[in-house]
Design a protein that fits this description.
This protein has eight helices and six strands. The chain is of the alpha/beta class. β5, α6 and β6 form a beta-alpha-beta unit.
Length: 203
Amino acid sequence: MKNSDNNLGHNQRNIAVGGKTVYGGTVGVCMLDTQFPRIPGDIANARTWSVPVHYRVVPGATPKAAVYDKGKDILEGFIDAAKHLVDMGADGITTNCGFLSLFQEKMAEAVNVPVATSSLMQVNMVQSLLPKSKKVAILTIHKPSLKQEHLIAANVPLDTPIIGTENGKEFTREIINDEKEMDIDQARQDHLDAVKELMTNHS
């Protein structure tokens, strides 16, 4: 009887298991190396999140490298950042640039946690929630730079409507040139104007 009681007590011990450096931050964000404003709602503004996050900047990874140059020469930096974030305690990895869908396969292979490199990966999920008469569209910072290979890497149908803000006055210029100030109202208007154009062309 005593042995049974001892076994029961042993099985009910309150055990904590380690293996990480930092706990409570479930998401790791691999960051472009930027200085432009990160307003609430931006993935790189920690106040956007309802859960704690880890961040890791990839030195030299500029917006132009990600958008115009297809991430040339910065992939290894993002893989290293992802590994560091996982070692710190992140249970999942993402990035702050949709154009980095090109990195999806190699980054996912490099770490043992779920990886979502691009917001483009949400297209199929959102489409599945819509009636058949409706279709997802993509609003991007620079339509000419969003190529078929970006879409294929994120499993996005190639006939998905796309519009960019590159014809606006503020948003694309400010982000791509990594400027320190942003006219929030004008940046918002650039988005609204682009969406209106898209709706007109795809109504």
